[in-house]
Amino acid sequence: xxxxxxxxxxxxxxxxxxxxxxxxxxxxxxxxxxxxxxxxxxxxxxxxxxxxxxxxxxxxxxxxxxxxxxxxxxxxxxxxxxxxxxxxxxxxxxxxxxxxxxxxxxxxxxxxxxxxxxxxxxxxxxxxxxxxxxxxxxxxxxxxxxxxxxxxxxxxxxxxxxxxxxxxxxxxxxxxxxxxxxxxxxxxxxxxxxxxxxxxxxxxxxxxxxxxxxxxxxxxxxxxxxxxxxxxxxxxxxxxxxxxxxxxxxxxxxxxxxxxxxxxxxxxxxxxxxxxxxxxxxxxxxxxxxxxxxxxxxxxxxxxxxxxxxxxxxxxxxxxxxxxxxxxxxxxxxxxxxxxxxxxxxxxxxxxxxxxxxxxxxxxxxxxxxxxxxxxxxxxxxxxxxxxxxxxxxxxxxxxxxxxxxxxxxxxxxxxxxxxxxxxxxxxxxxxxxxxxxxxxxxxxxxxxxxxxxxxxxxxxxxxxxxxxxxxxxxxxxxxxxxxxxxxxxxxxxxxxxxxxxxxxxxxxxxxxxxxxxxxxxxxxxxxxxxxxxxxxxxxxxxxxxxxxxxxxxxxxxxxxxxxxxxxxxxxxxxxxxxxxxxxxxxxxxxxxxxxxxxxxxxxxxxxxxxxxxxxxxxxxxxxxxxxxxxxxxxxxxxxxxxxxxxxxxxxxxxxxxxxxxxxxxxxxxxxxxxxxxxxxxxxxxxxxxxxxxxxxxxxxxxxxxxxxxxxxxxxxxxxxxxxxxxxxxxxxxxxxxxxxxxxxxxxxxxxxxxxxxxxxxxxxxxxxxxxxxxxxxxxxxxxxxxxxxxxxxxxxxxxxxxxxxxxxxxxxxxxxxxxxxxxxxxxxxxxxxxxxxxxxxxxxxxxxxxxxxxxxxxxxxxxxxxxxxxxxxxxxxxxxxxxxxxxxxxxxxxxxxxxxxxxxxxxxxxxxxxxxxxxxxxxxxxxxxxxxxxxxxxxxxxxxxxxxxxxxxxxxxxxxxxxxxx
Length: 967
Prior knowledge:
By secondary structure, the chain is α/β, with parallel strands linked by helices. It contains 22 helices and 38 strands.
């Protein structure tokens, strides 16, 4: 391994350097990536993979890193390609970035992914990107890339390489560029500048940097971000195999990467166990001892000690920004209570000071909220264009155009219908990030505030606490209306006059307060609300500015002036709305003082008090000349009116045709009548399908692959329209958007769960999205169906497949729908869970509701369902009760007067030619192959075995195979 980089030194840099373009899956992040089209340099299917364990470190700190290299067919010794290292988010593994790696390889890059030490199948302990460990591991991996003949080299042992990652992986990209001068370009996303200020923030003061979101970096004290730190420690606290000496296990945990489920340790020889290692494992999980000690001290005291600061500073790019002199694309989210816009702002200032090209992109999303598919696809293309330009040679046709060093952010969007909408789909661009590299500083507009001196009470122990946003669950807050909860008596409020014109805030506003405290200290939280004309309050992005105040006056008549920087946001305050600065004494996400106190809070400056809000002169992308805009608007309006007229006429015609409600609809929850689905290429997926299902039935939909089962379910759910025929639900025609679909609950084609949310919060978010009252969800009943116990409150990314399946089925049962449609509900469940699911479905139907189950497990259909529809080649070939379908065949159900004779009866039957017999849930079943039923019965009677029942029987599987074969 090459030594770590020492003091920064200039060196010539090729014009064909690049930064990496991959948006990863970071810690608890809502940033989900959408694959973008790959250029023609290499097709994704032409990408090969190479798996390897790579040794890194020495002595007690030696680890094995689990790696995968993705190699495009276009890369060879004759035509080497630039390389990319993808780092995953906290709690993930190399599998978390596999899709992104394949996409990049499809663009012609050699891509190396790996699980960081302590995660996935890699051994070792988590050091939070300690330069001695995780960053040294990166250098080891660069050595491996330099040895490949298909990787482009800038010199001996120096690969042309970019590094990127989100959150945990983003910090690794920054630190890697600082400590190893072979890194040529980086693209860190939603990551930190200083772990110290991120986890112990105090936004006291006003930074004169001139940038949009600059926040003073208090070094001595801050307010501990208790919940976020606890999430970090919980994710890293679960032990894995091969973690510590003396605990055994060199391989990966049985259930995959460290981010999912409860890892299983391999067998251990008790004599080899190191007691100290066991204590470390139980106390600290996968964290290194110094990181564990820092967290435990912080969690117990809520204070920043020199030891904690030293551990966090070691993993902070803030300490080495002057060493980063490579092209850097910084991507940060506007909905992020973990690493706010101030962290990217500080990184941008520090890197730009070295003369390196820096581009800043803000997007609507972050650790608290998932970005839209459109946004993630755009970001993927943004960063792809960035490293295509910087990593590729000037004569490379894929290089494209220079992405420049501008600034982009989501179009400011205000409050609409009570929802906390943050940023529209449109992007706003500016020539550069204000205040960087000698550019003009950010412009700030004063907005007058008013409000007198107000007492603010801090309750003992900090309870009850104000609720703004729950870390990592900002999407839930938004779905519920974006409303925060302030506790009466614990907050002071200062208002502007109703705005005459809309004000777009882009960045961090500042204000000066006057504060007094009997003890000379105070912990406060400042936030900027948008107050509508009806008095409704919305907190943009749910962000707050914690304030750790010391040296305050104890005299309320002579308070101390305190400059405050509010959180960085992108938000439009509409005309007629009011800006309200609220200063509270509590927030549930932070550590709070144990002692009660009363503070005095007012605005500094008296009648001249004002809020300074940052604004940016920029242009929405695609905005052209005014005349062209109005012409386009007129054309769109005309097309809209025409479309409306056509829709009205078509709607009337369609209502006349299908508005009739079938009189027996409530007794027949589902009816297919002559349903056919044909595609344009002539393929007929379903042909003339007719059947009906009545209340209280559990119907099994059976058929081989390609029988048309999934197409039928998709038509039933209104996802696609039938070519001919009618599907009715409770007598009403089913189709896309039909109101009657609200009576249907479904689980088809995957769970669709958000991995960073808990099972409970997934259920809450799903129900909130329906817009129906919370009391109608019957949440407790659904959670009881899930049967996950305490695991219902753990992140879904830590669930096994079976656990995810159970939550998804509970989600389908929210609201207790009258018609429940389940596709392969027992996938991933073990036998006891399958048995429990069988009972749940039967009892659910017994309440008068109806259940449709599609499954390939014929034995489960037989034991669960009352009725069956068998399909083959798109057509129905049988329909009836399970008993009717099974019919009479080569099997009999034998009922004995005395169960003690069962073993003797089995022996007698199996002594006959071609007969096999065994116990089942229904009793003794004999398969007769070549022996008549009469002969078998005679044999039992001849042996003195009293037979009460001898019923012809065959399994559903036999009937199914016979029917499908006949078709």
